[in-house]
Amino acid sequence: MNDYSSLVIRPLDSNHDRLGFHCGVASLDDYIYKQARQDVKRRISRVFVATTLEQPNCILGYYTLSTLSIELSQLPPALARKLPRHPVPTALLGRLAVNQADQSHGVGKILLVDAIKRTLAVSNEIAIYAMVVDAIDEKAQHFYEQFGFTIFSSGNRRLFLPLKTI
Ligand SMILES: CC(C)(COP(=O)(O)OP(=O)(O)OC[C@H]1O[C@@H](n2cnc3c(N)ncnc32)[C@H](O)[C@@H]1OP(=O)(O)O)[C@@H](O)C(=O)NCCC(=O)NCCS
Predict the structure, then answer these.
(1) N or C: which end of the chain has fewer CB within 10 A?
(2) For position 83, what pLDDT does the model report?
(3) Interval between CA 68 and ligand 1 midpoint (Å)
């Protein structure tokens, strides 16, 4: 059993065993197998992985971060009214996944908190209004809602969390 108290979260690199990762959602597995390294190389996304000190190449979970400009009309009217009439700068947590055998041990929560901390740190240098997440299904939506994310008014599975509320 992995020691979840010794999690290390750092950028994905070529030593990580990407093919050993299986979260149960094919598109999220395929992403880490085939696309993640390319996205990092091309500066399309940053990919962070959780490992343990004991097994530094074994991926327990990962998330991706990039920037995203949101049209004001996508935000709930009550919030949009308080903002200037321009697209809103946000950070997109595009994907978040935990290896199946390591789910329900708090790894997802730790990854999400890490992503929020990194976003807050960057937002001192580059303005970021909110963190945005794309939930893959209803269960994932509930996972994010318990951390205060709320659904966009447009009715898809995109949720956001204004940074000032954190
Ligand atoms: C969703 C996922 C990232 C959660 O990671 P995890 O490590 O299993 O979750 P944690 O153990 O950190 O759980 C944190 C909290 O979320 C809850 N939770 C976990 N999975 C959940 C789910 N699928 N739906 C709703 N709540 C969930 C837990 O009950 C826990 O609450 P608690 O601390 O009050 O007990 C993980 O199950 C996963 O990778 N699933 C497959 C891919 C996926 O759905 N990704 C979602 C983003 S698109």
Answers:
(1) N
(2) 94
(3) 24
* Residue identifier of the C-alpha nearest atom 27 of ligand 1: 143
- The alpha carbon of 109 and the centre of ligand 1 are apart by a number of angstroms equal to 7
Q: Shortest CA distance to 131 belongs to which of 99, 86, 88, 79?
A: 88
Question: What backbone phi and psi angles, to 5 degrees, belong to 119?
Answer: -65, -45
* CATH architecture for segment(s) 4-165: 3-Layer(aba) Sandwich (3.40)
Average pLDDT per 10 consecutive residues for the chain, totaling 166 residues: 92 98 97 98 98 96 98 90 95 97 97 97 97 93 96 82 93
Whether the full predicted model's pTM is greater than 0.85, yes or no, is yes
Q: Domain coordinates of the chain in residue numbers?
A: 4-165
Q: Is 159 in the pocket of ligand 1 (CB under 6 A)?
A: no
DSSP string, 76-104: -HHHHTTS-SSPEEEEEEEEEEE-GGGTT
- Please tell me the predicted confidence (pLDDT) of residue 154: 57
Ligand 1 midpoint to CA 33 (Å): 21
